[in-house]
Specification:
Strand content: 15-25%
Structural class: alpha/beta
CATH architecture of the largest domain: 3-Layer(aba) Sandwich
CATH superfamily of the largest domain: ANL, N-terminal domain
CATH class of the largest domain: Alpha Beta
Length: 534
């Protein structure tokens, strides 16, 4: 069979930068740096900085396929590195500074990073790590060395070309069990993913958009937003300090229309606005990911005319899998139906397939009731972890996400738990996530976590851990009374404990592993007496 007669155009990341420079060169990029200064640049100048950085990396001996690490927050210099590293043919390896020292040293050594660029705020951390790092040859501080390093170059540089399936980025999972695993992104997969997420039914981005990603540039490929921004030529606003006060000021000053972050960002934002009367400016779309936002949070933004787009994904998916954009019958839905819809992570975007299977691998129906193991496949889904010999997918390329989920008849996804976090009671499953989401809906509850505790009769029963809000008056009876109208009776926790704070992972999610370790010896009162009783 003969091939078609169209031009061959390899899907390489730097094509995105060329487009932004050529078609949207004067469109502004605003960066609020850690030192309190605000820097204004544009896509043309960013492209020039990226070329100078590519030159500088080559001068250090970096070659195609070499890994270059960053340990940094959101700012213009870090953004230049996103393109400069890839433009030199290297692999951008973003490091999460919230990880433990041992995890970071493992990740850097496993990746065999040759260069480490870092913020001055992490200088002490870098000094602690240096004795353990076996491959890093050059350390460059963004604040004190980066500009001088680039100043020696003229920017007369042609991007390194290569196969569109060559690697361009590397992110490691948070490693809640065992060592973190690396996900090696390709140019092709990343470009396709960035093209998908700008669509109206995903993030709805265009040249008219002004985007402020609160999601860190070191987290899960930054939701692919730097590359999506280059495709659309939108105005990009980045802030190294994610304090609600600073973000709100940028919203108003820069005319931000779109923003993206995890639920805690929005909860903190609401508290700041309620306390200080801050403005959200022209903001009209927020993207929520990482975990579920409480319905009260969604209602708060809706009352102010702001669209809420819930998403689900994972590092292994580049990372977006589903987004809760309005369906065709949106206008016919009631207020409560719309909020319930927006509370789910939505439907899969183009290039992502989902299915649910039972323990035997049998595909389950999309009936809104049948739950099982969530699997995915697609052009931007991992096939094999970095430096692993075996694929992490089955013969048909299905990747097991580790989530337990339900798919509704309208094809929207509802996550019910992580496979390792589900509470198994009397042969049935209790979703810790759904129990937590219900509890957070109770007035006076700031945060909730549910874990399974061994039970002599039921195998496991739920322990619900509650962080009260600032008022601090909600009682156990209040929570039980509220939950009685929200979940099945047999889901109600056998005990409720109030705590000052809950542990979180480096990516901001509840750390169920830490909670299970902390409460491994916890036992329900009178549980033994229930054995043998109806």
């Amino acid at each position: 069979m003969s091939l078609g007669a169209m031009q061959d155009f390899p899907l390489r990341i730097m094509r995105l930068m060329d487009h932004a420079e050529r078609e949207h060169g004067s469109r502004e990029i605003v960066a609020a740096r850690t030192d309190g200064t605000t820097v204004r640049t544009n896509w043309k100048d960013l492209a020039h900085d990226a070329r100078r950085m590519a030159e500088a990396l080559e001068r250090l001996g970096v070659r195609a396929g070499d890994r270059v690490a960053t340990l940094a927050m959101n700012h213009d210099r870090h953004l230049a590195a996103w393109f400069g590293v890839v433009g030199a043919g290297g692999v951008l390896h973003t490091l999460n500074p919230r990880l433990f020292d041992g995890q970071l040293s493992y990740i850097i050594n496993h990746a065999e990073d040759r260069v480490l660029l870092y913020d001055a705020a992490f200088a002490e951390l870098v000094e602690r790590l240096k004795p353990q790092l076996t491959t890093v040859e050059h350390y460059i501080c963004f604040e004190s060395e980066f500009d001088g390093w680039l100043g020696a170059e003229d920017g007369d540089y042609r991007w390194i070309e290569g196969d569109e399936r060559a690697p361009c980025g590397l992110c490691y999972t948070s490693g809640t069990t065992g060592n973190p695993k690396g996900v090696l992104y390709e140019h092709r997969s990343t470009v396709l993913h960035a093209m998908s997420i700008i669509a109206p039914d995903v993030f709805d981005l265009s040249a008219q958009s002004v985007m402020l990603p609160v999601v860190p540039m070191f987290h899960a490929n930054s939701w692919c937003l730097p590359y999506a921004a280059a495709i659309t030529g939108l105005k990009l606003v980045v802030c190294a300090d994610n304090q609600a006060e600073h973000i709100c000021r940028l919203y108003e000053q820069e005319g931000v229309t779109h923003s993206a972050g995890v639920p805690t960002v929005w909860i903190t934002m609401i508290d700041h606005i309620e306390d200080h009367g801050a403005s959200l400016g022209k903001l009209h779309t927020i993207i929520v990911g990482g975990s579920s936002a409480p319905p009260a949070t969604i209602r708060w933004f809706r009352k102010r005319g702001i669209r809420v787009r819930h998403l689900w994904g994972m590092t292994e998916m580049t990372p977006i899998g589903t987004v809760g954009a309005p369906p065709a019958n949106w206008e016919a839905m009631s207020e409560d139906e719309q909020v319930a819809y927006q509370s789910r992570p939505g439907r899969s975007l183009f290039g992502v397939e989902l299915r649910i299977v039972d323990d035997e691998g049998k595909v389950q129906p999309r009936d809104g009731q049948s739950s099982g193991h969530l699997q995915t496949r697609g052009a931007a889904v991992v096939r094999r972890y970095f430096k692993k010999d075996e694929d992490c997918v089955d013969a048909d390329n299905w990747f097991d996400t580790g989530d337990i989920a339900v798919i509704h008849p309208d094809n929207t996804l509802r996550l019910t738990d992580r496979a390792k976090d589900v509470i198994k009671s009397g042969g049935e499953w209790i979703s810790s996530i759904e129990l937590e989401n219900a509890a957070v809906g109770c007035p006076g509850v700031l945060e909730a976590a549910a874990i399974g505790i061994p039970h002599p009769k039921w195998d496991e029963r739920p322990l619900l851990l509650i962080v009260r809000d600032d008022v601090g008056q909600v009682s156990e009876a209040d929570i039980r009374d509220y939950l009685s109208g929200e979940v099945a009776k047999w889901w109600l926790p056998d005990a409720i404990e109030f705590v000052e704070a809950l542990p979180h992972t480096a990516t901001g999610k509840l750390s169920k592993k830490d909670l299970r370790d902390q409460y491994r010896d916890y036992r329900f009162a009178n549980a033994e007496a229930m054995v043998g009783r109806d």
